[in-house]
Amino acid sequence: MWLVLMPSCNSEREPKYESFLIEVESIYLPEEITVNEPFVIRFSGTIGNNGCYRFSHFETEKEGNDIIVEAWGEYNKSADVCADVMVNLQNENLNYQINESGNFTISVKQPEGRFLEKQFTVQ
Predict the structure, then answer these.
(1) Which residue has the higher pLDDT, 47 or 9?
(2) Counting beta carbons within 10 angstroms of the beta carbon of residue 69, is it exposed (0 to 12), middle (13 to 18) or buried (19 or more)?
(3) How would you class 74 by CB atoms within 10 Å of its CB: exposed for 0-12, middle for 13-18, buried for 19 or more?
């Protein structure tokens, strides 16, 4: 009786992702935002120019009346072939809630260190 062992290639085929900060082109907020009511922040921008790019997550930080947002993406650098498709932020929304009224600024950090800002009021 012979026993043949075949090495597994699974570890070699595991995707290897590289994280990166997504460049956000626009921020969309509801016209009216109410204290203690959740609202949706929508973003637009291009994540990548092929199917090896994907959205990963948002990171947020609140400093006084400033809300700092980072939109993170991932690139599958181990893929042999990537689908020929543009990957956009259009379906990625951030649910947020503010517990005080006042004037606020949302600042989205961009890859080169600058910020895309939008001011809004919470009633």
Answers:
(1) 47
(2) buried
(3) buried
Mean pLDDT along residues 61-70: 97
CATH numbers and ranges of domains, the chain: 15-122 (2.60.40)
Residue the block writes with tokens 């637009």: 44
Terminal C-alpha separation, the chain: 79
What is the per-residue pLDDT for 6?
Answer: 52
DSSP 8-state code for residue 113: S
Tell me which residue of 25, 46, 34 sits closest to 99, measured CA to CA: 34
Q: Is residue 12 helix, strand or coil?
A: helix
Which residue, 58, 63, 122, is CA-closest to 94? 58
Instruction: Decide if 102 contacts 38 (C-beta within 8 A).
Output: no
Q: Which of 101, 93, 105, 81 is nearest to 35 (CA)?
A: 101
Per-residue model confidence (pLDDT) at position 15? 85
What's the pTM value of the predicted model, to 2 decimals?
0.85
Q: Please say whether the beta carbons of 19 and 107 come within 8 A.
A: no
